[in-house]
Structures are given as C-alpha cells and as structure tokens.
Known about the structure:
The protein has helices at about 10-30, 35-40, 95-110, 120-130, and strands at about 1-5, 55-65, 65-75, 80-85, 110-115, 130-140, 145-150. It is globular, with a radius of gyration of 18 Å. It is of the alpha+beta class. A hairpin with a 5-residue loop joins strand 3 and strand 4. It has a four-stranded antiparallel sheet with strand order 1-2-3-4, sandwiched between helices. Strands 5-7-6 form a three-stranded antiparallel sheet, with helices on one face. Helix 3 crosses helix 4.
Amino acid sequence: MQISSICDSDPVRWNIRLAGLLEFLREHGERRITFRGCRVLARLTPEQLSQPGVSLLVATVRGQNGRQLAGVSFVSGFGKDASLVAVHPLYRNRHTGTALLSAQLERLGSLECTVACDNTASLKMCFNTGLVAVALHDGPTGKPTLLLRSPLLPGSPSTTLPQEGELLCQNPS
C-alpha cells in the first residue's frame, strides 16, 4: 500500500480527480461521512491544498490494471472544518484507515475529528492513531458523538501528568 498526497494544478484534471474521490466517499463511506465534510471537499480548489491545516491523501494498492484506490482521507482546518476517512471494503481491517490518519497527523502536526459513538471501526482507527477523546456532544444526526484530538506536544504545560511512582498530591493534609 502506498499513501500519497493529491495536488493538481490543472483545473480539468483536478475536477475529474475530485469527482472520483467524492464518488469513492459516497460509495464506501457507509453513510457515515457527514454532508458538511463532503461539501467542504467538493468546494476544494488546488490552491487551498497548500494552506496550513488542509491535506488530501489517498492510499493505493497495485492491482492488475495498475494502481487502485484503497482509501481516501481529507482534512481541512486541522479537522475543525472537515475530517473524512473512507476505506474500500476489501482493504478494511488491514490498518489502511489508521495509516491514512497517521499520515495526516504526521503531515499536519495536530488533528481533531468527531466520531459517532456507535461507529466502533472509526473510533478504533482514531485511538490506534493516538487521538484521545476530549468531549462528548450530540452530532449532526443527534447521536452521541466524541470529539477526538491529537495529544498536545510533550512538555506543554497542560500535559504534565504525574508519572508512575510520583506523588499525586504534593501537599497532603
């Protein structure tokens, strides 16, 4: 499997490629990809791909007819505007989604997304990538939804947690 970034400057080629990616998301997103996220991707221009916090990655595999699409991941606004991952059923349970999301995190440095609590496959992918749940709210369909974020960089003030063997309370009373 190969993960690569999409960036086209030719408008005709871009529109054809974008239409194919949107079709892939519709076909293999299991009706769990939000309308808002698809709309952000549908309006994406090649120029926007160079902005901070925006990334479009694909996972491809070598097939009989050349490289075939196995998965797609799109992030906008570091995930605040949109965060989408879809994997073809033949390549699920092979860590394809985890590899895509990990590549997004490595590329962007930080990431956040929302996942419905009943979407165990996506939650597993996010947790395998190292994202942590920070909030619970009602999603666009009214389902309980987790807000997941990449952990803060080590050494930042809000992440200094006690290590094993350290006292939890410095001034016991």
